[in-house]
Amino acid sequence: MAASTRTLFLSCFHGGGAEVSPHLALRPRYPSMPRRPRPAAVGGDAGEGGGSGGDLEAAKGAAEKAAAEEEKVAVFEVTGMSCAACAGSVEKAVKRLPGIHDAAVDVLGGRAQVLFYPAFVSEEKIREAIEDIGFEAKLINEEVREKNILVCRLHIKGMTCTSCTNTVESALQAFPGVQRASVALATEEAEIRYDRRIVAANELIQAVEETGFEAVLITTGEDRNRIDLKIDGVLNERLIMILESSIQALPGVEDIKVDTELHKITISYKPDQTGPRDLIEVIESATSGDITASIYPQAEGREHRRYGEIKRYRQSFLWSLIFTIPVFLTSMVFMYIPGLKDGLEKKVVNMMSIGELLRWILSTPVQFIIGHKFYSGAYKAVCHGSPNMDVLIALGTNTAYFYSVYSVLRAATSENYMSTDFFETSSMLISFILLGKYLEILAKGKTSEAIAKLMDLAPETATLLIHDHEGNVVGEKEIDSRLIQKNDVIKVVPGGKVASDGFVIWGQSHVNESMITGESRPVAKRKGDTVIGGTVNENGVLHVRATFVGSESALAQIVRLVESAQMAKAPVQKFADQISRVFVPLVIVLSLLTWLVWFLAGRFHGYPYSWIPSSMDSFQLALQFGISVMVIACPCALGLATPTAVMVATGVGASKGILIKGGQALESAHKVDCIVFDKTGTLTIGKPIVVNTRLLRNMVLREFYDCVAAAEDNSEHPLAKAIVEHAKKLHSEENHIWPEAKDFISVPGHGVKAKINDKVVIVGNKSFMLSSGIDIPMEALEILVEEEEKAQTGIIVATDQEVVGIVSVSDPIKPNAHEVISYLKSMNVESIMVTGDNWGTANAIGREVGIEKIIAEAKPEQKAEKVKELQLSGKIVAMVGDGINDSPALVSADVGLAIGAGTDVAIEAADIVLMKSNLEDVVTAIDLSRKTFFRIRMNYVWALGYNVIGIPIAAGVLFPSSRFRLPPWVAGAAMAASSVSVVCWSLLLRYYRSPKKFGS
């Protein structure tokens, strides 16, 4: 079980790529699992003889030769395939050929796509290999889609609310060549799917910057690695020219950018041909040691940017306090202390007092220097017709500041005018908003802690083994794990972490892979076995050849999937986006109306406004109310309500082995009221075993199994493998050789036929026997019925047209399957089982796990039809499956949940991947989505309720009766607090625990 889980898990990440045609991979509606071709030839060769120098040199030579050739893609129409075993047979036959880079088989579309090197193999050889195993193949003469659709990611600085994200998103969507753009406020990142033939990544950056925001490229999505190196030493034009020409001469280097101010070189390269260690060595040797290079500390990106932003806001807030506190004291405190009050009220020029002059001087740096970012943000937003939070802050603070300046200047030029200033309003507003942003960024940073924890699984250093020309180990040295290159040999000591994905070339040990695959028991490793970066070596020393490093590793791609999921907006986010489009203009109008109402009320002095002494006082009061409305109504909390909760939930899910592909999958899951389960590999373990043998003729059991195993050894079907494994146990020798099978015929879904020792042996189901003209005795039929009632599959064996025995195979039910179904029922979720197995076995499994509704003998398309029927009846349907035959149903369902140990096609088609293959995670996924959307609803209730209650109070509805008013700086503090509270409410999801019955 452990081995199959590990192998299938790795294939999920290393099994295909953007190169795979749409005919061969059912594309999901959400960000998919990362896929790319696996170069099987290198792994296989090394696995066989990675320890010898000759094999190492041969493998390197072959790899270099293959890399020099142009890869080609051929698509074949394959007829006769009916199940996953058929697809596996075709894929296995093709991959055995020399020069095959990768092969993908679509059993549903009847197609095979092969990535190969023409120097080693031709399309005709591939077609013949497919036909040699019993299928018809025809080369399809069509142009396969080139790898031109890429996904790039940008970090965008300066966004404050959903109005900003809408502006950037709209600008990107309108750009030629952009297929889809998604901008997330919580992560301050954009993910753009674009055609590189039409638009380049730097043009996308320019499009963002034209909207008034700064953009930093994270990744272009191209099939290449990118590294930032720090340069220590004095750079001049001559050295820069030497560096660029030396680096450019290296094979695989595609692009170089030198930043002299930051002393940074950014290099894009092909990891198959070079790596960071080679680059550093060339830099230092080309400059004769005058320049040293190392991994740039900001290469990790997001965390450094976040810390930089936190630092900037903290500094801005502290500087604002230095000026704001004296302003606050002179206007709110010292005015009630007799001695200080007299000093502050002393006139300087005419009616202008010392206190007013001090407040003017102190508030000016806050308004124009510290608050400069609000001006620039507001200007850019207005220029693009999308007013945002910065516009409201700039209007509110400027109104207060410039009215105060007017009032003070008028007092300075008059002998009887008593001025009233609001300098404390503008300076305290800016200070509280900066404090709110500082706290908000601190809180938002914790929403991605799950990603940081995943990245921390990789060790900081690795032990690199140095080989001589003959392949013997001559030394070792400790290096930064980020400097590992492809084909490096890494030594992993007991208790140490595996530094990169690769395969064992020497040693034996057990590796704990629970942090990646969820496999609780350590997995045995020996020569040729694959290992995953970030896993822990339990005992024994291993020498591992690195195959996938840096951004190609399984761990890096899990991180990328989670990041991509956090970028995808939930449909409920559209609600906030629609409100934010009109919210700011509406608030501006509302604040003007508030000012106008209060001003006119003061002019008429009527009831209930008789307490207003003069029209000028009413103007000042109206001004305060207008500013308060403008500030308190900022839509920041509304924009953060959904993305922060989705970010935390997807991170929590990843930490529990549940990969949720975006907000839409999360939103759909919380509505699920019906789950359709596949049987094999989902409700059952998926690894059949022989549990009983009934002979109908007197013969030696070992001889019986020799005939059966000889026939089944040529089949890829799981039941056939179970029979062969059982037959091996009847022989003492480890590698027993079965009798030769002649005239082998495999009928997918029915059985096999072969000539063994001059006897015609037929192994299969009842319909196969009848179609072969074999009479099934009553005794055999009774045994089949008995086995079906026990949830076992009976396989009939006949020799020379006579039934001689029945082999009973059982696929054990997963632990806790009954408890899971029972718990789902308590959650008001109906469970249905749909399987391709016979009715007897299906009913027996259903009774054992507690499922009442069962559909058996269903073909793949019938599973999808059943899902659609349930949807038409008003159900929100989730499908749980693991095989290729489940893919149509996974796509058709509202939510597709793929078992992580299943096929990569099923994983691609699913919306949620259960990496640990535990059935309990179905409950956890639904429960987590329900808890998440409870948080989102509460966020909206708080954000909207805050505005519904806060705006009228800020507008002064309580003032006539209670004299209570909300000063603008208090309104600003309340606005900042609302955003922080929404983020903190979402952060509580970090403490989510699975339902107690299944929690660890």
> On the 0-100 scale, what is the average pLDDT?
78
Proportion of residues in helical segments = 40-55%
> How many DSSP-defined strands?
36
Low-confidence stretches: 1-69, 142-146, 606-616
Structural class: alpha+beta
Oligomer: single chain
Give structural attributes.
single chain; 1000 residues; seven-stranded mixed β-sheet; 34 helices; disordered N terminus; repeat; ion transport
Question: How would you describe what is shown here?
Answer:
The chain is an alpha+beta fold. The protein is built from 34 helices and 36 strands. The strands form eight sheets. A seven-stranded mixed beta sheet has the order 24-36-35-34-25-32-33, sandwiched between helices. Strands 16-15-17-23-18-21 form a six-stranded antiparallel beta sheet, with helices on one face. Helix 31 links the parallel strand 35 (895-899) and strand 36. Helix 21 crosses helix 32. The model is unreliable at 1-69, 142-146 and 606-616 (pLDDT under 50). 49% of the residues are buried. Helices cover 47% and strands 20% of the residues.
Annotate the secondary structure layout.
Elements: H1 2-14, H2 40-49, H3 53-68, E1 72-79, H4 84-95, E2 100-106, E3 111-116, H5 123-132, E4 136-139, E5 149-157, H6 162-173, E6 178-184, E7 189-195, H7 201-209, E8 214-219, E9 225-232, H8 237-248, E10 253-259, E11 264-269, H9 276-286, E12 292-295, H10 302-333, H11 338-344, E13 347-349, E14 352-353, H12 354-370, H13 372-383, H14 389-412, H15 423-445, H16 449-455, E15 461-467, E16 473-480, E17 489-492, E18 501-506, E19 509-512, E20 523-525, E21 530-531, E22 536-539, E23 542-548, H17 554-567, H18 573-604, H19 615-632, H20 636-655, E24 658-660, H21 663-669, E25 674-677, H22 679-683, E26 689-695, H23 701-712, H24 718-728, E27 741-747, E28 751-756, E29 759-764, H25 766-771, H26 778-789, E30 793-799, E31 802-810, H27 817-826, E32 830-834, H28 839-849, E33 853-855, H29 860-872, E34 877-881, H30 887-892, E35 895-899, H31 904-909, E36 912-914, H32 920-954, H33 959-962, H34 968-987
Parallel strand pairs: 25-32, 25-34, 32-33, 34-35, 35-36
Antiparallel strand pairs: 1-3, 1-4, 2-3, 5-7, 5-8, 6-7, 9-11, 9-12, 10-11, 13-14, 15-16, 15-17, 17-23, 18-21, 18-23, 19-20, 19-22, 24-36, 26-31, 27-28, 28-29, 29-30, 30-31
Helix pairs in contact: 2-3, 8-9, 10-12, 10-15, 12-14, 12-15, 13-14, 14-15, 14-19, 15-34, 16-20, 17-20, 18-19, 18-20, 19-32, 19-34, 20-32, 20-34, 21-32, 23-24, 26-28, 32-34
